[in-house]
Design brief:
Blueprint: E1 13-16, E2 19-22, H1 51-61, H2 69-75, H3 81-91, E3 95-96, E4 117-120, E5 127-130, H4 132-135, H5 137-146, E6 155-156, H6 159-169, H7 171-185, H8 197-216, H9 218-247, E7 272-278, H10 285-293, E8 302-309, H11 313-321, E9 328-333, H12 341-348, E10 356-360, E11 365-366, H13 370-379, E12 385-389, E13 392-394, H14 401-424, E14 435-438, H15 439-444, H16 455-465, E15 469-472, E16 477-479, H17 485-506, H18 510-517, H19 519-554, H20 561-592, H21 604-624, H22 639-642
Parallel strand pairs: 3-6, 5-6, 7-8, 7-10, 8-9, 12-15, 13-16
Antiparallel strand pairs: 1-2, 4-5, 10-14, 11-16, 12-14
Length: about 675
């Protein structure tokens, strides 16, 4: 975890602007004729930084909330942080290292990750490691003015180097917190317990009552059951109809989109943490790093955590073979159950020092402007906006029928349903990637549930129950749809199993959910998640029931009013289910200028039957192996082309009337 890289030569030289500076040489005299500057940049008047940049930073640093002058220079790209810390160390008589202390030599086994200094070693090897960024550059410089020599023989290192060393020392603690933190602190939100006693009693009672009714009055029971199940279909029909109507009232590209908003000046760029959980992704590492490097965000204000299972030797080896750019760090998650993506993310979350953080998958290729758009929307919203979901665009949608249908789902979900839910201020089931969070809020609500295999959907609902809301942005992330049925089935099984887990978690205490969400949002939760999951499970039976009723009518004979009414409702719901979904897809297609033949809509029944197969498989796994994570293989669809995705191709995905607003996708349901 980062420290494995310390086998390299620990030289005290640092590169900046393409040349090498010996940081152990003493500084020359500072010209006294220059205008007095803050202590943290006064020693840079020898020409290392342009005088007008120094003056601007000094002036800005006097304004409230701007930070010290050196941080302003670093944020603006006028000063390399590593070079600056090395020169600061030289000025103060300290040493400088690119690496932190050996974790095993730390004297304090319970040191905080936010520590500015820590002692390592013993006896003659005892050293004080200092992270001047954490302590504050101005504080360090002024402290030396008051107490010369206070940092003599100390070792200056980067804030992340010190954090990584402390994190490695306390790895068992952080692993335990990642696995058990949510179930200890907020047990009612944890999927560790599959079902409560109350839920089990309710389900058992329903099964017993249904069995008794079938025994006593089978015909009436079947008719009533068909009517009841029709309600779920009707609910989804009404939901889709409402979404289509709402889309006409939502600007193409999203709600209050950040494009065109006033953007704050660069000196106030906040720190942004980027997290990627990788497992068996050695083939994706190079393209992933290249894609993340293209993100339009100051390098000095960005940190990237590549999180791997410690026994995933191939992926770790692939990462170490690359000369990682500045700010990229490898984090090895210890082997422990459950072996899920949210467990890995929860483990690495304490390392995030950014005010904001974003989650990507190994195969993701985010648009370069995505961080900037998310940040701009955050700055123009109130503090209750906790998360922003970027749209996911399927780049291999032309590969085969399966990828086309998958892309159609994602279009309907991310460009249709989620913007409409944001417009309604309803809970949003997040996608599993490209989620931008306020880091403090993410920690406040407990982070990801390691036992929920669709931690994204669960987290979106938990944020809503905690008084926060989620929104959307338009800058997309390219993803690959599984082009192979077996891979698609495993991925969809995991998604639907996680949705079942989410339903069970958030229906444990109906009164609590109503109190936290309100009646309207509780209803929307059940429309968006519960009704869709149930309709997906009953879809095959609904098709059979419709066929049986059609054959019954075809045989003629006398049919009562009740029978005809139920039959008519069944036909209506089935037809309306397909029609309203097609209407949503068409509405989204018109907004995004994403062209796909309408003939694919005629194959919806076949695709929804596949989803039903995955649903029943998910239900079986929920009972037998609830935390099983079936890994989705990537790079299966024209790998060479996928590695070179060009953002010029976004034109086909752009919402009409917008230059930078792109589309995405999500879950479809019968």
């Amino acid at each position: 975890m980062g420290n494995g890289e310390q086998a390299e030569d620990r030289r005290t030289t640092t590169r900046t602007a393409g040349h090498r500076v010996n940081t152990r040489s003493r500084l020359g005299a500072v010209p006294s004729a220059l205008v007095p500057l803050p202590a943290d940049i006064s020693f840079l008047q020898d020409g290392a930084v342009a005088a007008h940049h120094l003056a601007e930073a000094a002036a800005l640093s006097r304004k409230p909330g701007q930070g010290c002058a050196s941080e302003i220079l670093i944020a603006r790209g006028h000063l390399d942080r590593d070079w600056y810390e090395a020169r600061l160390a030289d000025l103060l008589g300290a040493h400088h290292s690119r690496y932190g202390p050996d974790p095993q030599e730390l004297a304090d086994a319970n040191a905080s990750l936010d520590s500015a200094a820590i002692i390592a070693g013993a006896g003659k090897n005892r050293k004080l490691f200092v992270a001047p960024q954490t302590a504050g550059y101005l504080f360090v410089a002024e402290m030396v003015q008051k107490n010369p020599g206070c940092f003599a023989n100390a070792v200056f290192c980067s804030a992340m180097a010190l954090r990584l060393a402390i994190f490695e020392k306390r790895k068992p603690f952080f692993l335990d917190h990642a696995v058990h933190g949510l179930r200890r602190n907020k047990p009612h939100y944890s999927a560790f317990r599959r079902i409560t006693g109350r839920q089990a009693a309710w389900a058992s009672g329903m099964v017993a009552a249904t069995a008794l009714a079938l025994y006593l009055a089978p015909s009436i029971t079947l008719a009533f059951g068909g009517l009841l199940l029709s309600v779920f279909y009707l609910a989804i029909v009404l939901l889709r109809s409402m979404l289509v109507a709402l889309l006409d009232r939502i600007p193409a590209g999203g709600n209050g989109n950040a494009t065109g908003m006033h953007q704050p000046p660069p000196e106030v760029h906040p720190a942004y943490s980027i997290m990627v959980a990788l497992h068996d992704e050695a083939g994706q590492v190079g393209d992933l790093v290249a894609a993340l490097e293209k993100l339009d965000w100051p390098e000095t204000r960005r940190e990237v955590l590549l999180v791997c299972e410690e026994n995933d030797h191939e992926t770790i080896s692939a990462i170490r073979q690359i000369r990682l750019p500045n700010g990229f760090h490898l984090v090895a998650c210890p082997h422990a159950q459950p072996k899920t993506k949210p467990k890995a993310l929860a483990f690495a979350l304490p390392l995030c020092s950014g005010e904001y953080c974003v989650i990507y998958d190994a195969e993701d290729r985010p648009h370069p402007s995505q961080l900037r758009e998310a940040w701009t929307k955050f700055t123009h919203s109130d503090a209750r906006l906790a998360c922003l979901q970027a749209p996911l665009v399927i780049h291999n949608h032309r590969h085969n029928w399966l990828t086309t249908m998958f892309a159609m789902e994602y279009q309907a979900q991310f460009l249709g349903m989620l913007p409409a839910l944001e417009h309604l201020r309803a809970p949003i089931p997040l996608g599993g990637t490209s989620n931008h969070f306020r880091t403090g809020v993410l920690r406040e609500v407990g982070g990801w549930d390691p036992f929920n295999v669709t931690e994204d959907a669960d987290l979106g609902i938990r944020l809503a129950r905690s008084g926060y809301r989620c929104g959307t942005i338009s800058a997309p992330t390219f993803e690959e749809a599984p082009p192979v049925l077996d891979v698609w089935l495993k991925q969809r099984t995991r998604w639907l199993k996680g949705w079942l887990q989410t339903i069970l978690v958030h229906t444990r205490n109906p009164a609590g959910a109503r109190r936290e969400l309100g009646w309207g949002n509780v209803a929307m939760f059940h429309l968006v998640i519960t009704a869709i999951v149930i309709s997906m499970l009953i879809h095959p039976g609904f098709l059979v029931l419709t066929a049986v009723q059609a054959m019954s009518l075809g045989k003629g004979g006398h049919h009562g009013i009740a029978h005809l009414w139920i039959t008519g409702m069944t036909f209506f719901n089935l037809a309306a289910g397909y029609t309203t979904y097609a209407a949503l897809v068409i509405a989204v297609r018109q907004r995004s200028r994403w062209q796909v033949s309408g003939l694919y809509l005629l194959t919806l029944p076949a695709y929804w039957l596949l989803i039903s197969v995955a649903g029943w498989r998910a239900l079986f796994q929920l009972v037998t192996n609830p935390f099983k994570w079936e890994k989705t293989a990537h790079g299966l669809s024209n790998p060479s082309r996928n590695a070179n995705i060009g953002f010029g191709s976004l034109q086909a995905h752009q919402p009409a009337g917008s230059e930078n607003r792109k589309s995405g996708g999500g879950h479809a349901a019968p």
